[in-house]
Amino acid sequence: MAQTVKINVTVNGRQYEREVEPRLLLSDFIRHDLGLTGTHVGCEHGLCGACTILMDGEAVRSCTIFAVQADGHEIQTVESLGTPEKLHPLQEAFIEKHALQCGFCTPGFLMTILDYLGDNPNPTEEEIREAIDGNFCRCTGYFNIIEAVKLAAEKMASH
Amino acid sequence: MAGKFVHQSIKRIEDPELITANVQFLDDINLPGMLHAAFKRSDYAHARIKSIDVSEARKLPGVIGVYTAEDFGDYVKPGPLQVPPPTAIKGATYVARTTMPIAKDKVRYAGEPVAIVIAESRYIAEDACDLIYVDYEPLEAVVDLEKALQPGSPLVHDDLPSNEAGHVRQERGSWEQAVKEADLIIKRKFFINRNAGAAMENRGIIVQWDKQAKQMTIWCGTQSVIALRNQTAARLGLFESQVRVITPNTGGGFGPKINTSLPDDVLITYLAMKLERPIKWFEDRRENFLATTSERDQVHYCEIAVKRDGTIVGLKDFFYHNTGAYNPYMMTVPLNSQTHTVTNYRVPNFLTEFYVVFTNQMIVTPVRGAGRQYGVFVMERMLDAAAKELGMSPVEIRRKNLLPANAYPYYTSIIGQDFVEGVLDSGDYPTAFEKTLELIEYDKFVNEVQPKLRAEGRKVGIGVACFSEGTGVGPYEGARVTVGGNGKVVVTTGYTSQGQAHYTTFAQIVADQLGVDVKDVKVITGDTGYFGWGAGTFASRGITVAGTATHLAAQKVRQKALKLASKILEAPEEELELADGVVRVADIPSKFISLGELAIIANPMRGTMEPGAEPGLEAVAYYGPPYGATGAGAVGLILEVDPETMQVSLEKMAFVHDCGTPVNPMVVDGQIHGGIQMGIGDAFYEELIYDENGQLVTASFMDYLFPQATDMPKKLVLGHMETPSPLNPLGIKGVGEAGAIPIPSVFTQAVENALQDTGVEFDRDTLSPSRIFTYVQQAKGA
User: Fewest CB within 10 angstroms: B91, B266, B599, B735, which?
Assistant: First the structure.
């Protein structure tokens, strides 16, 4: 068996101590070791953005980070947002604007936008397009995602 | 046709669970004791396998087994055809060389599996693949479509006399006659490129064999659970009832997920039985690019015969179609190209002929659009060429030749992918065209905006193109509608979902029939344990075919509820209504019985039943149309080309479409939006490029450019039309592929218009900055 390394990671406010292989991807660690399967893997080469999570509050691609690199860091995944009964305003906006179809890329978009709106709560349309440019979607053509970000910005400002 | 729910933009029922990750996609499923598979894939496009050494791989700790073709014995053989040959077309010829689940003796495309590893983890399985040594004798690869048919070309299949996989020729009227009548004949050659479906979720499969129960369960994001179940059962000698196929939430389909009897499902079902442990395989993106199916390249030689005034008298199109190394999907794609070449226009004489060609490339099967866009592309390009030669505007020549609004039903004489003569059931193409011109403000742009900007040296252009989309073809789909004792309704269908909102739209249809709230209708799609009949998710046929079956089943349940309630309430059926989850006497609202109570009464536990009566508030219905319902529309585009970089910026797009009754207009818009993204990819970004050795050089998102948010039009205006289809009771036509179809046509026209001063003309459907630059240099004679 390959050598393992002990890591301590805080995910969605909960602390985990795990033994992992140094080569284990953070995306696989989150999904398969911790069972938080809301983070999706679309390309495993850092392009599509489906696996985007927040690490210490910054949106990053979990498929191009090793789990060991997350040692001592704080991670936030889509599971930290709302529940079906109590949605996060960003999730509400996505539903209201029909900004998801198959829903596979959506968690990555949500985490990217969450980080972005934290830094820029009142973006222009052009800025929104730039902000989500690193996330791929095959179903929506992005049009409704852009609308959802506008609506989410309004909702989050009034929260 | 509008109802309380049908024709309303109901928010999607599936969204709250989906957006909070309270759902299961394939790779989210982990079963106890589950093993993982990885494929060793060929590095060569064409080579003989001299030997495979798996000894080192087998020794790696954690590896359960390494298997090559030899280990499967007689089990490994070419799979069944997924689509029948077009024997309905007179004179059509074909040979079938269907998918080999694992290469035996010879590899025919780069990425074809030569071995499969089963291990305790995916990481170990991939490690083991690196320890497999294959000794190949490389052969010359068949890559170029036209050279492939020349004598002396290397052969993809050694037992065939040539690389020809099929030939179809169809004619309406007489091309010869058109040549006689024409004032002018214009000839062009066009190249069509290869594209990937590129669903954000790759393909995958999990197979569990329960030895005690003798029951196999397959989880797979397939577009056809029925095909997967039936082919698996037949291959393994099981009853269909011993195989249950379940589609988890699926991250997009777009065509390639329709295929069954591919290496993964053939080999993993076998190994899960043999090893008596569940096995998961989840494709990675590189494998998806290399070895899932993708779509075509074609080369067209086209001639259009016109009068001086722009009237089309005929069209002749001859093309080659690349089917890749195997042809399990037969001719769906080239037949779609053929049927969609002239649908929007009056073309009295039409000769269309194609050859299907084997090459050492991945297998070609439909991707959103499925060949329709290339028929449309060829026609629209020919109109542009004719307009230029005749000194007409692109608008004028289209206006002159569009089928009039009173032309339907219009019999095309051309047999399509459903093996019946194409019939345009309904539509109003001229109005769609005029509406598009209005929305894109064509005249204003050409007369005011463009001259001003051109004077400033800016390269701005406009284009306008028409399209049709044959949708909702047969054979059939079915649905069961059941009212529970809780008064809520379940719909089950063999149709599968990959994000199209069936959980909402099918519920809307049922809610209207049964007078219940849309939220009280639960839709279950794509699970053979619930519903075991159907063909699959293709050809934009979900809402048209499965939706209509759902409607018919709901109507039957409605009749049952009325009949039973009439007895209980002692009132004639005509005086009853279904609303608010009850059946009530319309004039005496206090006199009612709930659907839940009726459902319980309808399933008596003792006593007798009337002869011929069927239990439950439940019904099954099937729907199969005589031919598909044809949607249509038009698109206008304004763009700007940067003369330094040749990058194109899409300023405004106007898209008018007609899909009959939109069951959920919000969802329809979403379908159009997504199609446009794929169309833009097709026109400017996405391309699967093979080098002369048959190596795919664009096998990652670094090289295969996927359109992103900043690549979309800055402004998009949708226009809606509704000419209901007479083929089904709700008047529906499909819309899933519409958005993708006309974009390459309008894009090339608009870029040409922007660069008008250079005299450039494009002969391919996928441009790029460097391509545009090259074309412009050529036009300048540089």
Answer: B91
Show me where the domains of chain A are located: 5-79, 89-157
Cα–Cα distances in angstroms (integers) from residue B648 to residues B291, B370, B714, B773, in the given order: 31, 26, 12, 12
Q: Which residue of A has its CA nearest to B201?
A: A42
Domain B15-22+474-623 classification at class level: alpha beta
- Which residue in chain B is spatially nearest to A49 when comparing CA positions? B200
Indicate where chain B has its CATH 3.30.365.10 domain(s): 15-22+474-623, 298-473+626-779
Beta strands in B458-562, from DSSP E residues, in sequence order: 459-471, 477-483, 489-493, 521-525
* Per-residue pLDDT at B781: 87
The residues facing B593 across adjacent strands are B583
E-assigned strand segments in B93-149:
93-94, 106-107, 113-119, 133-138
Q: Provide the residue type at B621 as one letter.
A: A
Q: Which CATH class is domain B298-473+626-779?
A: alpha beta
- Distance of residue A123 Cα from the nearest chain B Cα, in angstroms: 15
| Interface touch B706/A47, C-beta < 8 Å | yes
Please answer yes or no on whether B670 and A96 come within 8 Å at the CB atom: no
Size of interface A-B (CB pairs under 8 A): 168
Model pLDDT for residues B706-762, shown as the tens digit of each residue: 999 999 999 999 999 999 999 999 999 999 999 999 999 999 999 999 999 999 999
Phi, psi of B738 (to 5 degrees): -50, -50
Strands (E), B238-340: 243-246, 279-282, 298-306, 312-324
Under a CB-based contact definition with an 8 Å cutoff, are residues A131 and A115 in contact?
no
- Is A143 in contact with B284 (Cβ distance < 8 A)? no
Residues of A in Cβ contact (< 8 Å) with B203:
none
pLDDT digits (tens, 9 = 90+) for B136-178: 999 999 999 999 999 999 999 999 999 999 999 999 999 999 9
CATH class of domain segment(s) A89-157:
mainly alpha
Of the candidates B722, B719, B718, which has an alpha carbon nearest to the alpha carbon of residue B661? B722
* B334 in A contact zone (CB under 8 Å): no
| Cβ-based neighbour number of residue B351 at 10 Å | 19
CA distance B614 to B606: 15
Determine whether the interchain pair A42/B285 forms a contact, defined as Cβ–Cβ distance below 8 Å.
yes
Contacts of B450 by beta carbon, 8 Å cutoff, 6+ apart: B460, B461, B462
Taking the Cβ of residue B12 and every Cβ of chain A, the question of whether any pair is shorter than 8 Å is answered with yes
Say whether pLDDT at A1 is over 70: no
Give the distance, in angstroms, between the CA of residue B656 and the centroid of all CA atoms in the same chain: 20
Class level of CATH domain A5-79: alpha beta
Instruction: For residue B681, give how far its alpha carbon lies from the nearest alpha carbon of chain A (Å).
Output: 10
d(CA B92, CA B582): 56
Q: Which residues of B touch A134 (CB under 8 A)?
A: 708
Touching A: B residues 112-151, CB under 8 Å: 123
Mean pLDDT of B265-290: 98
Residue range B335-350, pLDDT digits in tens = 999 999 998 999 999 9
Q: What are phi and psi of B281, to 5 degrees?
A: -130, 130
Measured between CB atoms, which of B11, B12, B198 is closest to A138? B198
Is B499 part of the contact surface with chain A (CB cutoff 8 Å)? Answer: yes
